[in-house]
Amino acid sequence: MRAPLFKRLAPRRRVGRRVGEREAIGILRGAALPAPLGMYDDAHPIGCEGGFILVKQDAVARSTDMLPGMRPDQLARKAVLAAASDISAKGGMPRWYMAAVMLPPEEATEENFAAIRDGFARASAEYGLELVAGDTGSAKELVIDVTAIGTARRFVGRAGGRDGDLVFAAGWGFGYTWLGYRVLLGGERPSLDERLVEAALRHLYEPRIPMRFGWRAAELVDATMDSSDGLATTLYELADLNGMDLELRELPLDRELEAALRAASLDSAEAALYGGEEYGIVGLVSGEAADRLRELAREEGVPLWILGEAHRAEGRPRVTLEGVGEVERRGWTHF
User: Fold this and answer.
1) CA nearest 317: which of 193, 158, 180, 186?
2) What are the start-end ranges of the H helices in 33-109?
3) CATH number of the domain at 166-326, please?
4) Residue of 12, 44, 101, 245 with fewest CB within 10 Å of its CB?
5) Residue 163: Cβ within 10 Å count
6) DSSP codes joined into one string, 155-168
């Protein structure tokens, strides 16, 4: 039985220095001494016979993650896939998940729980996942906390790239999520084909993850990250952790979307670099393995782009784009 102590405490005013998301994570990581392999990665690997067990936790809340027009079942499905995406990006196959669902008591209705159940069920059916445990509780708003568990023959870390590697991106959401946010949060309605706008909203409401591609690509790639905070942030994380300059020649946009953005006088580079929640895989692969990676992407039906090359940095690692120069480092952050 939970002690009611915290319910009797009066709210305390915030005191002390505010920190950003990266610093907050750094503080919390101090609970693990020494920091284990994967503590600084998308998912945590636990060595076992034949490979690794991968574990990842992710949470969504109504006030920060439920977009205008989004249904509770879509938020529940997205919560599951956000955690599964990180495991996939590490070369794992997501298999099981646990979920904690918290709601205000006045919202704890049969209809709300049924909607959340339906979102879990859709994620499970589409990606072969199994809900194995969970919890419920009361909170001031809807919160869904998911822990995904998977298996991997090889764990692919964020570091591990080699001088001369190629930079790649794989997935469906690049550029589309940026457009969707402009429509939903910016109140804009760009002069684009309605099909593209609908596709952009679908990528936010009903994201797809390249699950089998990530699992199969583990034997080919040198370093990977899940791209969910925006491509620019992801690229800079890879550059920093690998001590590499990333020299890009192109960006991951499908041709129809890129042409439409330019025709509407919208910045296609901005769209590719600063979206967020793409749930794609970004990484480094050797030139020798790149053709096999392309073939794998075709087999799995996953869009793949070779963006450029990585070279050992002589000073501060930089990300540059041909014809533009140094890419501005910015992206999504919680604090």
Assistant:
1) 158
2) 62-65, 72-89
3) 3.90.650.10
4) 12
5) 12
6) ---S----TTPEEE
Structure token digits, residue 239: 């550059």
pLDDT tens-digit series, residues 254-274: 999 999 999 999 999 999 999
Burial class (CB in 10 A: 0-12, 13-18, 19+), 3: exposed
Quick one: residue 175, left, alpha or beta (phi over 0 = left, psi -120 to 50 = alpha)?
A: left
Cβ contacts of residue 219 below 8 Å, gap of 6+? 153, 154
Q: Give the separation between CA 231 and CA 174, rounded to whole angstroms.
A: 8
Q: Where are the domains of the chain?
A: 38-152, 166-326
Dist CA 152 CA 39 (whole Å): 17
> How is residue 292 written in tokens?
């096999």
- Residue scoring higher pLDDT (21 or 287): 287
Closest C-alpha among 47, 40, 57 to residue 100: 57
What distance in Å separates the CA atoms of residue 56 and residue 97, rounded to the nearest whole number?
A: 9
Whole-model pTM: value is: 0.89
Residue carrying structure tokens 């992801």: 234
Q: Tell me, what amino acid is at 209?
A: I
Digit-coded pLDDT (tens) for 113-141: 999 999 999 999 999 999 999 999 999 99
Mean pLDDT of all residues in 161-186: 96
38-152 to CATH, choices 3.30.70.1450, 2.60.40.2080, 3.40.640.10, 3.30.1330.10: 3.30.1330.10
Beta-sheet pairing, 221-227 with 280-285: antiparallel
Supply 162's token pair.
């080699």
